[in-house]
Specification:
This protein is an alpha+beta fold. The chain has 15 helices and 34 strands. Strands 6, 7, 8, 9 and 10 form a 5-stranded antiparallel beta sheet that branches. Strands 30, 31, 32, 33 and 34 form a 5-stranded mixed beta sheet that branches. It has a 4-stranded antiparallel beta sheet with strand order 1-21-20-19, with no helix packed on it. The relative contact order is 0.07.
Length: 729
């Protein structure tokens, strides 16, 4: 399975080296296909060569030859499956999904699990709905087999749904790449902040393919490097060119080195060395160096059962209560829950020895893999990466309270800390705000072969926690208005709602936004409150804004007649005054409402002339209302010319229809509440009072629901046409 490589101490550093293992030197000699003797081999010899590269872990090279073979036998299911596996192993999710789909089409009975793997690859692309459909298809296509795998499908579907929900409500953080001075085309990992001024990490510092040669291992081995933060630039978290970490004799030429961690007192340094054996087999062991006198001692391999079995990696030492505890990840078999687990060993303060390692327990470990532990003593939380819990992609970052053996409140860290890709090595700054580092192969990483092949170090910049809290108050009674929908809309039109049962509400806000907040309840109009976070900086402190939304009960027997005009005139007729005065009184009684004024003409004249005339008619009404002290900002005047006629301008035999033309020379009114969603309370073009129109709307909606609930719930009106605007709850 693909995950085995990711569980090695250096994650994909070792994988990337293995991609180019064996036959890499031969590959370099024959970069031109015309000069490559392997390309000229007969089919079965070339197949053996490609399979040999695959078994050796040289997946990039194997892809080249499988593609050549597939040109000869395009529908060969074995070649298609091997290609899918190669792309799977190199974390190239898009072609992997394509070839798994193709092989399942060719030979579903021979490769039934290809459908499951296609779904995984769709999930890791972020194509969550497509992944859900494919997981469900796998379950449906295998009703009596693959019980365990179908159970995992349900977990993966749960992860897809969680991801889509999390992306709608992201965590208040920014995740930015640490840049080319830290990251290279190969994988970087195990970030360890040295205060707030520098970053220790492990890297190969290679930006081109590495030729694996046992005689030149020191050229491609991962080693510790340190990068200082730049102080002479405006950009936050910008790093200088890295230098080799020279504090101790930690780096070793013939071994991969990484996962550095200081003891709480700073007098011990723990890290991992991984050595390559035959067939690129890698074994990792935890070492410790002590600061004695004025220098670091020669690193020693940990004893006491820490390194006895399996591959042991990713040490992190922290205070848990009064105890000093070593956390690490190991794939040892005894007492394991499966794959790599998080283990811990309490350090004896009397003699510095390590007690027998204990499994961190089922609250943390699963049948999958748990790696990269980090413990924050300040808040009593363990952070780790896992592919065994419900995740948004492959590996996600989780937190849990407690330790070292019992934990509660397991929590997925959510988007954008977690994505559809793999996330590892979460670690927070030792001081200050909860800024942190993360390792991920998400889109945007500096890549060697494909956009998601390799891991980079990313900076998590916490945003100030901005909230708006408030109350919904009845203006007349000064009492809370219960069962109200509170709506918050930003400058882009993004709407968030809060169902307030008791008149109280709260919203999270983000920097760089302007918000309008209103209340919505049948029979009430609402004032609006504006809150801006445009000028808030990332370094500003947390802030909470308190507001009050006032609501007024609406007079439900209100109605207003349309206003009509003489031919070719925009002046108001004397008989229009009572109707307009009624509207003025209503607007004054309900200061949170707005009115939309739509004016029209008959069909005489050209379009341009009629548009201008109708606009003058609408403006004449607006001017009348404004003179009566109705705020101009609460009114919208628009002319529609001869469009949207309510009566025929001519008879059926083509003669002029004076009555119809008079009816079309009109102005209609829409009384609107709740500015963000523009809910129509009253439409003068429809019969009845405001209360009657609301009842008719409810009756019509009920009838639609009975006929076709889905259509009724999903129906959208074309509000660009005034004649289509109706009361809308």
């Amino acid at each position: 399975m693909r995950k085995n490589w990711l569980l090695l101490f250096l994650a994909t550093i070792l994988l990337t080296v293995q991609y180019n293992a064996n036959a890499q030197s031969q590959k370099d000699k024959y970069r031109n296909k015309a000069n490559d003797p392997v390309a000229k081999l007969p089919y079965y010899k070339k197949l053996r060569w490609a399979d040999g590269l695959f078994r050796a872990g040289s997946f990039f090279n194997a892809i080249d030859y499988y593609q050549q073979l597939k040109q000869e036998q395009e529908r060969n299911a074995y070649l298609t499956f091997q290609l899918a596996e190669c792309y799977y192993m190199t974390r190239d999710y898009v072609p992997a999904a394509h070839y798994y789909n193709e092989v399942y089409t060719y030979a579903p009975k021979l490769y039934p699990e290809a459908l499951f793997r296609e779904a995984l690859m769709l999930k890791q692309q972020g194509e969550y709905q497509a992944a859900i459909n494919t997981f469900n298809k796998f379950i449906a296509d295998n009703p009596k087999t693959y019980k365990k795998l179908k159970k995992r499908c349900l977990r993966e579907i749960e992860g897809c749904n969680m991801a889509m929900n999390s992306m709608k409500d992201p965590q208040p953080v920014n995740v930015v790449n640490c840049g080319p001075n830290v990251n290279s085309a190969y994988t970087e990992l195990s970030p360890y902040p040295l205060g707030d001024t520098a970053l220790l990490f492990s890297t190969m510092r290679q930006n081109s393919e590495v030729e694996v040669d046992k005689r030149k291992r020191d050229e491609y081995m991962a080693r510790f490097m340190v990068s200082q933060k730049q102080t002479h630039v405006n950009e936050v978290d910008s790093f200088e060119w890295p230098l080799t970490f020279m504090d101790g004799n930690f780096n070793k030429g013939n071994a991969h080195t990484g996962n550095g961690s200081y003891s709480p007192g700073g007098d011990r340094f723990y890290f991992t060395r991984c050595s390559e054996g035959d067939s690129m087999k890698v074994m990792c062991y935890i070492y410790v160096s002590k600061f004695e006198g004025s220098k670091w001692s020669e690193p020693e391999i940990l004893t006491g059962g820490i390194n006895d079995d399996g591959s042991n990696t990713q040490p992190f030492v922290a205070k848990v209560g009064k105890k000093e505890v070593l956390f690490f990840s190991s794939n040892r078999q005894l007492q394991s829950r499966g794959g790599y687990d998080i283990w811990y060993s309490v350090i004896d303060p009397r003699n510095g020895t390590y007690r027998r390692p204990q499994n961190a327990g089922k609250q943390i470990n699963t049948e999958g893999n748990e790696v990269t532990p980090y413990y924050d003593s300040r808040v009593g939380k363990l952070y780790f990466a896992s592919d065994g819990w419900v995740s948004m992609g492959g590996y996600d970052i989780y937190s849990a309270d407690g330790g070292p053996s019992r934990y509660t409140n397991l929590h997925n860290m959510g988007y954008p800390i977690n994505t559809c890709a793999d996330e590892l090595y979460y670690i927070k700054d030792p001081v200050g705000r909860d800024n942190a580092y993360l390792v991920s192969n998400r889109i945007g990483a500096i890549a060697l072969k494909n956009p998601t092949c390799c891991d980079d170090i990313w900076r998590i910049q916490t945003e100030p926690k901005l909230m708006v809290v408030g109350k919904i108050i009845n203006r007349k009674s000064d009492q809370p208005v219960d069962n109200t929908v509170v709506k918050m809309v930003d400058q882009k039109g993004e709407l968030i709602t809060y169902n307030s049962a008791d008149g109280n509400f709260a919203f999270n806000m983000s920097r760089g936004h302007s918000y309008v907040i209103t209340g919505d309840k049948g029979g009430y109009s609402s004032t609006r409150a504006s809150v801006s976070t445009m000028d808030i900086k990332r370094t500003d402190p947390d802030d909470t804004v308190h507001i009050t939304i006032y609501m007024d009960s609406i007079v439900h027997d209100f109605s207003v007649s349309n206003v009509y005009y003489d031919y070719n005139k925009a002046d108001l007729r004397p008989e229009s005054t009572p109707s307009l005065d009624s509207l003025i009184n209503f607007m004054k009684d309900n200061p949170s409402l707005t009115v939309e004024i739509y004016a029209y003409t008959d069909a005489h004249g050209n379009d341009k002339y009629n548009d201008e005339l109708s606009q003058k008619r609408a403006q004449s009404v607006l001017d009348y209302l404004e003179k009566a002290s109705v705020d101009k900002g609460r009114m919208i005047a628009k002319g529609f010319g001869k469009r949207f006629a309510v009566a025929p301008n001519t008879t059926k035999d083509g003669r002029d229809n004076p009555q119809g033309r008079q009816m079309n020379r009109r102005t209609e009114f829409r009384v609107v509440t709740d500015i963000p969603s523009r809910r129509i309370l009253f439409n003068s073009a429809k019969p009845g009072t405001m209360d009657q129109q609301e009842r008719n709307l409810m009756i019509n909606q009920s009838a639609n629901d009975e006929d076709d609930p889905d259509k009724a719930n999903n129906k959208e009106e074309d509000l660009s046409k005034p004649g289509n605007r109706v009361n809308k709850e």
